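SECTION: protein entry
WANTED: fold as tokens:
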Amino acid sequence: MDCLFCKFATKEIPLEFIFENEDLFSINDISPQAPTHILIIPKRHYENAAELAFNEGSTLVQMFQIAKELAERNELNGYRTVFNTGSSAGQSVFHAHLHLLGGRDFTWPPG
């Protein structure tokens, strides 16, 4: 498999992680859409959030727990979490990952 996030997870491509445990790692987004834009990524490959939810619910819960911890660490008084599922929704890396965005005001509906 030629998955960029899998190569990060196995450290085939070295990268500084913001957070790492047995199941997950977090990195800063290379194209941030907010002052704080962190990706929370499972080490095991799932193509998208729907596949992750049906196969590994505990990892999904853990991702949101880490998002909360990282938001607190970054002193965010509010934040947005986003999964893009499918190319028409903006998913560009087909390995499930949760976006944690904060540090600015957001509008609704999102763009």
Q: What stands out?
A: Strands lie at 19-20, 24-28, 36-42, 79-82, 98-102. The helical segments are 4-9, 49-55, 57-73.
